[in-house]
Design a protein that fits this description.
The chain is an alpha+beta fold and about 375 residues long. Helices cover about 70% and strands about 5% of the residues.
Amino acid sequence: MNVHQALETYRGHTIPHFPFTKRRNVWFAVSGVVILLSIVGLVFRGLNYSIDFEGGAQISYPLEASVTTEQISATMADAGRPDAEVQIVSGDQVSIRTDSLTGAVNTDELISSLAKQAGIAPTDISIQDIGPTWGEEISRKALTGLFIVLAAIALYISFRFEWKMAVGAMIALVHDVLITAGIYALTGREVTPETVIAILTILGYSLYDTVVIYDKINENTESSALVSRLGYSGVVDLSLNQTLMRSVNTSLVVLLPILSLLLFGGETLKDFAFAMFVGVTTGAYSSIFIAAPVLTILKSREKRYQQLEARRTVRARSGVAEPATATASAGAAKTSDAAAKAATARVGASSRPRPKSKRRPPAKRKRR
């Protein structure tokens, strides 16, 4: 494919002919490796839950003096909190995460020491103390919402299409959530309530892309002639090629603003944008390379498609010519369309009345 063909394909003027289902083992192997790495990260490193989930104290205050994170950590260690996590955000804002300060004896001394070190008044220090009960409640509600969403999606796709399509969509959604969680574990990023919101949003986007592809597959399989020529896997390939550029362009339009938030947004927006960026990328991948190939495997086990494939194999061995690929089908469609246009042009030309020719009267001869 040259540059002109690639540009025409990207603009949607031509349909590509990639053999998605034939190479499904490659896509499954790629996803398997990434999922294996995600599981390793979740098991050995675990998720870095924020204070909203684990409970504790969040200390925030502006920084007026020249102080390093090591000096602040030393002050926390002197107060009996050596495990405190200290961050200096934007060069002038300190964020400290430590155990709960409720009931602590030396809280006032700690606040005074931090204020003196930062060159501010003790009243400028903000303390947010969250108990572990609230974090457990957030986790429980998040898991409950996730299971409800998955169940509702499965019921919707089963009602709209069929249960085998619902199975493919569920596998793709689990694929997206598992990879997103694994990347969070491997990178050590903090899991916040914004992350949970982003993951739920990811499920909606992945479902949207999958439903678009499934709808095109369902539309093409209604043509018995097309199914008999290409087989079910060929129809799936044709449908994926027809919707490929739509999925790619939609994903790019969604990823560009997310990338701007990830690069230029605040800390809260960056947590949300990171989960969204990873989830949208994996969602676009799973809709094409996971959900559709899984559906092909499930549908190919049906008796009618097995019989159809057997007949196609017999015809191929007997030397009966037939368009066996999506390329041939697309070419035949283009040829028939061109022929129809030519026939229409001929009919229009023949049915159009011809103007009557005007004859000039014979010239008069001059008498001598």
